[in-house]
Amino acid sequence: MLSHARFSFFVLLGSGSLATLLITPFLSLDPINLPKMMVVVTGASLLLTYVAINFKELLRDQSVIFATSATFIVLLTIALLTNPAPWADQLWGTWGRSTGYLTYFAFILFMLSAAVLTRENETRTLQQLFERVSYLISGYALLQTLDLDPIAWSQKAMVATLGNINFMSSFLGLASISFLSRLVAETISITAKAHYTFLLALNLSLIWISGSIQGLAIFAAGATTLVALVLRKKTNFQRAIFWLLFTIPQGALVFLGTTGIGPLSSLRQDTVIFRRDYWLAGINMTNENRLNGVGIDAYGDYYQQYRDLAAVVRTGPQRVTNTAHNIFLDVSTGSGLLAGLSFLFIFVITFRVIFSMLKTGNFTSTDVAVAGIFIGFVIFCLISINQIGVGIWGFIFMGYLQGWNGRQKNSHSNRKLDQERSISKKFVPKPTLNVMPKMSTAIFGVLGLTLSLMPNITDVQMLSAVKSKNYDVMLEVVSKSSATQAHKDRYLNSMLEEGRETEAYEFALTVLQSNPRSDLALRVIGSHEGAPKNLRITSLEQLIKQDPNNLELSQNIRGLINSLGE
Fold this sequence. Notes:
The chain is an all-alpha fold. It folds into 2 domains: 4-424, no CATH class; 460-565, Tetratricopeptide repeat domain (Serine Threonine Protein Phosphatase 5, Tetratricopeptide repeat). Helices cover 75% and strands 0% of the residues. It is built from 26 helices and no strands. It has helices at 4-21, 33-53, 55-61, 63-82, 87-92, 101-120, 124-145, 165-185, 190-210, 214-234, 237-258, 270-288, 299-306, 309-315, 327-335, 337-360, 365-383, 388-402, 404-424, 438-468, 471-478, 485-497, 501-514, 519-527, 533-546, 551-565. The longest helix has 31 residues, at 438-468. It is globular. The N and C termini lie far apart (81 Å).
């Protein structure tokens, strides 16, 4: 009979793989993120019973990480219940991102499950599967590079199944760390060395061709960690620390150079400069909404209000974003400062595990690989968006590292058991694992699948209505509780394109009831000649408040308001 631990391990591996690979290009408006969100939420629901069963073990071996994770979820829940941001966008995440409450809850469950599961199961399997998934990403990216993509995407780009060049580059950067660990931390055959050298070269070439520096930055950080751990194994702790103290400042100088600061400012990258604008807006947003943030995944509704004049002038007011491009800031802006700090502390705890590895020298080659991947993931978190297909592996590997103490205890227990067997010359059976509690697992799994299916079905129906230009069905779809602000904006734009201003105005009024900050709804109401004058003026003034540094917008709106007052 399949044990609960073995079943949960399969769920962990399967969810990680599917979350990276699954896309629905012919069914959904968002064929990338919504299906991935469905996978992680359903998978985490199936793991919930396993986490509950191992509650005592988590308290015993991972008490700090468990308490920190529980605190983060509580603060996230408070933000969900108390913020005025649209409920659907907070629960499932903003359309095109899907990093809402359910996704972060799922990530935490994957991390805690991995912390326990990797004590009992073959840990190398996790690394092997991750590498095999990367084969498919590399292969698809190569097809796109050769213009052989079987899917007619709206844009031709090397994105694989991750939707963005930077995400593809980051994933290949993480996989490259794993391949490098095979070469520097393991004793393998010449054939195996050739195999991993080819894969490493292929990935780095694809990253270079893509033009995305994220993958290179991630790989460099991971490679630095690998070298430190290998030095510790072959020499001593002091040399490993010296290596880190030598390389980390250089990496910091290179990063500052890409932002146009310091002696290496010639490395300046416009995309990094833009991120400075996004980070500053996120810091301002967090500072003014410390208690519970502005709403989970609601950064985009507030970005224009908190960006500075330099961000507006740099490329024009039309450059906007719905994420801080820094996962820690995304959490703090959405859920408050305490939630952001508790989330950050989860990473700090994992850093402490790696330091313990360096200090003791007790680690395997798989530990080396995962430690390097985690450090690469930290770089990803600092400069990118929490893309689900990449993020799930980051949290799984974090859980793996947090289970290191448990694996050390298991190793000691197994050696003691072997000694007892050799003395008594009697076979001592290993403790049997719990039989899978089918009922509770099934209930939670169905609940997770149902919750995560709702926005996917809505998105599929919306695409069908848009293709057929059936505006009645479109209205039914956007009136559902699972419709996001992006779906409503799509409907409003369709009405305006068809010259149906009155219908657009009437729907905009309903939109403002659930999201008073909807930029498009405010514009529709402010420009509709049939709307009450006071309502138009109020809507136009709100637009200025939400984008105070957009001087061109303010000037145009002030002129319109003056004409209404005449």
